[in-house]
């Protein structure tokens, strides 16, 4: 079972492509342009124009995550269009990239 899961993750890492049809595009109402600051195994840390930091979960991209896959999709310094949901004063904002979120 674990071997099958490992193979599925490896296949996803090689072949996964973002479905740009369901993603926010630059200029969509309620969105901002953030800059990818760092990766984790389950998403991206993104700096927003207001200097707040947000977290974009890999599930928003439709994938399981993993550093190799996430580094292939977006690199540190890349600009990404997101909708931000503010979470308190000190926490990271939740970020969304899919129009259906």
> What percentage of the residues does DSSP assign to strands (E)?
25-35%
- In whole angstroms, the N-to-C terminal distance is 31 Å
Mean pLDDT: 88
Main beta-sheet strand count, sense and barrel state: 5 strands, mixed, barrel
Number of helices: 2
Topology, number of strands: 5
Unreliable parts: none
Helix content range of the residues, please? Answer: 10-25%
Identify the strand order in the major beta sheet: 1-2-3-5-4
Q: What class, by secondary structure content?
A: alpha+beta
Indicate the radius of gyration in whole angstroms. Answer: 14 Å
Shape designation: globular
Helix-strand sequence:
HEEEHEE
């Amino acid at each position: 079972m674990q071997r099958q899961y490992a193979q599925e993750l490896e296949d996803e890492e090689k072949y996964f492509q973002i479905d740009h049809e369901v993603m926010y595009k630059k200029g969509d109402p309620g969105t901002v342009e953030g800059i990818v600051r760092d990766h984790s195994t389950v998403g991206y840390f993104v700096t927003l124009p207001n200097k707040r930091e947000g977290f974009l979960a890999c599930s928003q991209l439709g994938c399981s995550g993993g550093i190799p896959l996430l580094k292939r999709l977006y690199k540190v310094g890349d600009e990404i269009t997101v909708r931000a949901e503010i979470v308190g004063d000190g926490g990271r904002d939740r970020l969304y990239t899919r129009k259906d979120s």
